[in-house]
Amino acid sequence: MIIIMAILAAVTGPRFAGAITNHRVENAARRVVADLTLARQQAMTRSASVTVTFTVATDSYQLAGIPHLDRPSEVYAVSLAEEPYQAKIVSAVFDGEAEVIFDGYGVPDSGGSVVIQVGNRQETVVVDADTGEAGVQ
Question: From 3.55.40.10, 3.40.50.720, 3.40.50.2300, 3.30.390.30, which CATH number describes the 2-136 domain?
Answer without folding.
Answer: 3.55.40.10
